[in-house]
Design goal:
328 residues, alpha/beta, single chain, TIM Barrel, globular, two-stranded antiparallel sheet
Length: 328
């Protein structure tokens, strides 16, 4: 199994209490800690307003962070889970991604999805089109990016985008192009786009839905004439990792107290519940992840809510969980 970890950027209220002058030192030091711990990749989210509710807490912009993290890390790969296709013109995004791939020495991952956070669309003045339109834009956007990374001049005329003589220089360092991650589990459209274009996917709320959507993806691959076996299936996990169950519970209580500053009791409990599925001691986490591995999930991207304050969970995960699952 392969592993990535998220860098705190504020979106999930994970920089609260840290002086703004220390935000970037914190984020950059965590990224370097992820790299030093042996994770294959470091990730950010592409959002503008905090969750579970919009607030005046910070949310740092994803592609700004991509460029900054590229300059302060050496080996770890860098991705977004995932870029909202309709927040930026795909031609512009292709250009930005190619530039960052060069800056990073060929370490960029291109995570892309149709977008979902309606309040952000409305807040920032983007049209929140119906799902079929957004996914149609996603499909065309991926086509544009791949062509701009591999062709000298791109002319494109689709239902949603038109390009006339687009040039993308520099080209990405990675060949044949930057790896494409299509995130989302929409069965009729998103997974079909993944079957057509993706080297990686990211979907599944739980193990049963992951198994079901994997079967749907396989059927799309058959119809599109692409290889299901060549598409890496990944999953994001919310994790608290500690040496004892008591320590896990203490961290979950800390997390609930943080949410209570923004949402009512019931909603705070619901947020914490999302962490209970995979949190635990290293051995407990290994056993849970093995079930996912048996279902075909081979790339786990983990979010630790306390990284800006405490690296012990990350380090424990790196020393006890990763070796147990990567040396098989």
């Amino acid at each position: 199994m392969r592993f990535g970890a998220f860098v705190p950027q504020g979106w999930r209220l994970d920089l609260i209490g840290i002086d703004p002058t220390q935000h970037w030192p914190t984020m950059s030091s965590v990224a370097r800690a992820i790299e030093a711990a042996g994770f294959e990749s470091a990730w950010v989210y592409d959002h503008f307003h905090t969750v579970p509710v919009a607030s005046q807490e910070v949310t740092y912009e994803a592609w700004t962070l991509m460029a900054a993290l590229a300059a302060v890390t050496d080996n770890v790969r860098l991705g977004q889970m995932c870029t909202s296709n309709s927040y930026r013109q795909p031609s512009y995004l292709a250009k930005a991604a190619a530039s960052i791939d060069v800056i990073s020495g060929g370490r960029l991952e291109m995570g892309i999805g149709a977008g979902w956070y309606q309040a952000e669309y409305e807040g920032y003045g983007y049209e929140f089109a119906k799902a079929s339109v957004r996914i149609g834009q996603l499909d065309e956007g991926v086509q544009i990016m791949k062509r701009m990374w591999t062709e000298d001049v791109v002319d494109f005329k689709g239902r949603h985008y038109t390009l006339e003589g687009a040039i993308c220089r520099p080209k990405p360092l990675q060949q044949p192009h930057i790896p494409v991650w299509v995130a989302g589990g929409g069965e009729q459209l998103t997974l079909r786009t993944a079957a057509r274009h993706a080297q990686y996917t990211n979907f599944g709320l739980d193990l049963d839905s992951f198994v079901h959507k994997s079967a749907v993806l396989q059927e799309h691959c058959k119809r599109e004439g692409t290889s299901f076996e060549d598409i890496v299936r990944s999953k994001n996990f919310n994790i608290i990792c500690a040496g004892t169950e008591a320590e896990v519970e203490a961290k979950l209580a800390w997390l609930k107290d943080k949410y209570l500053g923004f949402v009512p009791e019931a909603r705070a409990q619901a947020q914490v519940k999302e962490f209970r599925h995979l949190s635990g001691t290293p051995q407990q986490i290994v056993e849970k992840l093995r079930a996912w591995e048996q279902a075909g999930m081979t790339y786990a991207i983990v979010y630790f809510p306390d990284l800006a304050y405490d690296l012990s969970g990350l380090q424990l995960f790196a020393t006890e969980v990763i070796p147990a699952l990567s040396q098989r």
